[in-house]
Specification:
This protein has five helices and 15 strands. The chain is of the alpha+beta class and about 270 residues long.
């Protein structure tokens, strides 16, 4: 197979980890008069379209969010990861609490697999490099190697999580392999905090991902509820133990990405 013009003067592979690569567009030139002005200023502000490209060698498999595949070439087969009714019900519960799709198709074979474009930033991580696995914020999972195991991690104090408006569960990844995450913040802007039998308190869901070895709770900012109200902080996310947290430096503007992702890929 010979694929021509996947990369050119406008599209370049910006990062690679394992069989996963990120193809980034310098600017969108396949536009119409209706969105040309918007696309121009987006490019000027560094808002670019990105795609995950997965090299399928026959020795690896890939698991994607449902509907994430844009095109594939070669002898690639698709199967679901459902093993029966009980497994399907379990995955329905998992998807309902982690904002991921219930069925994640598994791809295997030889060829190339290209995912749908996104204006979000794509972060590639090796799961085995994280202590006891990796836990990610809801809705960030895009794809991973078939060797990565998926589970759910519950917060220790459920009552405070409800009061804080946070989810009760998060998707956890263990094993060996690459995961592709969709982030509102570029990786080079993320703050990496390595805890050694210590704790981290964050006001809001600014943590992108963290080690599964950390204890994750939602607590009052101060010892008393009155003190928390007086301080103006209320409830905070708390990470305790030994492990790593990747944190966004600012709260991202979801409205920006909702607007940019709504722009059609075709002119």
């Amino acid at each position: 197979m010979n694929i021509i013009n996947l990369e050119n003067s406008n599209r370049k592979i910006t990062s690679t980890l394992g069989n996963f690569s990120v193809l980034e567009y310098n600017r969108d030139i396949s536009v119409s008069s209706n969105n040309a002005v918007t696309e121009y200023f987006m490019a000027e502000m560094g808002v670019h379209r990105r795609q995950v490209v997965i090299n399928m060698t026959g020795l690896n498999t890939a698991i994607l969010q449902a509907g994430a595949m844009q095109w594939m070439a070669g002898d690639i087969k698709i199967a679901t990861d459902i093993k029966g009714v009980g497994d399907f019900m379990g995955k329905m519960f998992k998807s309902s609490v982690t904002k991921e799709t219930t069925v994640k198709p598994k791809y295997s074979g030889n060829g190339i697999l290209v995912l749908e474009p996104t204006y979000k930033y794509i972060i590639l991580k090796e799961v085995s490099e994280w202590q006891s696995g990796l836990v990610i914020e809801d809705g960030m999972f895009l794809a991973c190697d078939g060797t990565v195991n998926q589970g759910i991690t519950a917060r220790k104090n459920i009552s405070s999580a409800v009061l804080g408006g946070e989810g009760l569960f998060n998707l956890s990844l263990t094993g060996k392999g690459v995961v592709a995450l969709e982030s509102n913040v570029p990786e080079e802007e993320l703050v990496e905090i390595r805890l050694n039998n210590d704790e981290l308190r964050i006001d809001g869901n600014m943590a992108v991902c963290w080690s599964n070895s950390l204890e994750f709770t939602v607590e009052k900012a101060t010892k008393s509820l009155i003190g928390s109200v007086a301080s103006g902080e209320g409830l905070v996310n708390v990470y305790r133990g030994t492990g790593t947290v990747l944190m966004a430096p600012v709260t991202s503007s979801s409205s920006l990405f909702n607007a940019t992702n709504s722009i059609s890929a075709k002119p």
